[in-house]
TrEMBL record:
Family from the record: Belongs to the G-protein coupled receptor 1 family.
Source organism phylogeny: Eukaryota, Metazoa, Echinodermata, Eleutherozoa, Asterozoa
Annotated TM spans: 20-40, 139-159, 179-205, 244-266, 278-300
Domain G-protein coupled receptors family 1 profile: 31-301
GO molecular function, a single term: G protein-coupled receptor activity
Record GO cellular component, one term: membrane
Localization per Swiss-Prot or TrEMBL: Membrane
SUPFAM superfamilies: Family A G protein-coupled receptor-like
Protein name: G-protein coupled receptors family 1 profile domain-containing protein
Key words of the record: G-protein coupled receptor, Membrane, Receptor, Transducer, Transmembrane, Transmembrane helix
Origin superkingdom: Eukaryota
Amino acid sequence: MNATEEHNEEIAGVKRVCQIMAAEGVIGVLGNLLVCYVILRVKFLHNMTNYLLVNLAVADMLLCLEETLYYLTSDCKLIAFAPVSNGVRDLFCRILASRFLAWALTYTSAYNLCVVTLERYIAIVHPLHYARKLTTGRMVTLITLVWVISFLISLPLLFTIETSSYPDRICLIKYPHLLFPIIFSIYSFLLGYLLPLTLMIVAYYKMQVTLKRQAKALNLQHARAAAYDLVIARQNLVSMLKTVLGALILLWTLDYVTILLCLQHTEEAQFLFCGSKGYHYTTLFASLLFTFNSVINPIIYEFKYKKFRQGLKVAFCSCFKRQGGNRVDVEMVPL
């Protein structure tokens, strides 16, 4: 095989991967849109925890949409992008090609999952303080801060790229300083990965210990079935959320490892590996896994969240009659 054939085969392989990633993004958008529709449509799902899951689904949906647009137009050029003016070209480079929007939505997704964890943590570990601490106003403020801060801490990326005068390239990477990639890599790893994951792991450990202690106490006291059912329901919900967290750790880790090596795969990056074909393929695979995290959450809800499965039936089958309709929905009771 000569060099030209090898190059063409490489391009074809990259495009196939990009097509998979674009399709993955579309599936993620539809799946998270389904989560929002079901929770907002079905009345017995209207509670604080599920509203926070809607907020998380919106962040994941926007991240999937951004990734689809990026791989269609910028990285893999599956669709030719022809800016009509210099202003549109500059906006495209700074918002999309710089990965500013991707990083902002990544932070938003991670910290919105932290907010879901916080709500469950207070409900289980500090139930007497739930109504006072988690008022609607406070939660709205917290969610707003998550979105605003996520975009603010991604702002440096707006200054890592500029428009190109070359006819075959729209954007050029231009770091404000040679140390910028190293600083931003560490900064992103700490803020976007290590910090939220550490907080959530500690919180889930404390929740699990508390729930086991409560279940043991209720067994010893031969408590009423309703009280024991409440603890079991909470354990099931925490188990579902731990699965969401486990998927995030599994699917994000490779991408963040590559971030610690290089911010961008260019020949001018801090390690020679950053400009190699091996790194390029690694980042494509890592991005494939990364985006899949936003796709998999609706699937986890379907298999691990009983109330969501019931909500799906209610939302899409008008003939479905909920069994035991007078039973108290204990799964989301904060006390």
